[in-house]
Design a protein that fits this description.
The protein is mainly alpha-helical. The protein is built from ten helices and no strands.
């Protein structure tokens, strides 16, 4: 099951149509489980960490990254590392259904705080791998902060080389969900431009579905 989830997640990064639907509950559970196991190779939060466990290893690595960030507060790298490690730690704190526990969401909040410190230091270029994790952290089923998810997805889409149609399609979907029509429409146009002509109609239909379900634009 995990291998299938990972395969679907990889496919979603390259396919502007896949994963654009509204069935978020199943996909977010699979994504959380897949990322957590792929990055840490361990089970759920029901297991108490022992000194040799992945959870204990993560805690040690978090302590090291935190110390580096304290020693060099203008260096963005330790903050990127903290964001990644806290996201991984959140993946270890889920229930049997893959939903984040309260402790898991606390780890996501720690991850996004580190990410915001990282972005404030204006890294050039930003780490798109960590951005991808933070887009998930802010998404539905995680912290569900749509506007922040859009901001992270913009960084991811704009700094990925070569430009990726799927990332812009995902940006459009997130922006529609957040009520940010201007960003959504711009990203939708870019997604269609980057999509091979034979698939543009399908992408357009998918984006139109997201557009039709968008809430009123927020001020």
């Amino acid at each position: 099951m995990i291998r299938r989830a990972l395969a679907r997640h990889r496919e979603s990064c390259n396919d502007p149509v896949w994963g654009m639907g509204t069935g978020r509950h199943a996909s977010r559970r699979a994504l959380a489980a897949a990322i957590a196991i792929a990055l840490t190779g361990c089970g759920s939060s029901d297991d108490q960490p022992d000194p040799g466990s992945p959870a204990a290893s993560l805690e040690s690595r978090i302590d090291i990254a935190r110390a580096k960030a304290k020693t060099a507060p203008t260096d963005p790298e330790p903050f990127a590392e903290l964001a990644k490690l806290h996201f991984q730690a959140a993946g270890l704190k889920t229930g049997s259904t893959g939903e984040y526990s309260d402790d898991g969401k606390d780890e996501l909040r720690a991850a996004t705080r580190a990410w915001e410190r990282y972005v404030a230091l204006d890294p050039d270029p930003p780490d798109t791998g960590v951005a991808q994790l933070m887009a998930a952290a802010y998404g539905p089923g995680s912290l569900d902060e749509p506007r922040k998810a859009v901001a992270v997805q913009q960084i991811l889409a704009e700094h990925t080389r070569p430009p990726n149609a799927a990332l812009y399609a995902q940006l459009a979907q997130k922006a529609y969900y957040a009520g940010d029509t201007q960003t959504a429409e711009s990203a939708a146009r870019r997604a269609i431009q980057l999509t091979p002509k034979s698939r543009r109609a399908a992408v357009g239909e998918t984006l139109q579905t997201a557009r039709s379900k968008a809430p009123p634009e927020q001020p």
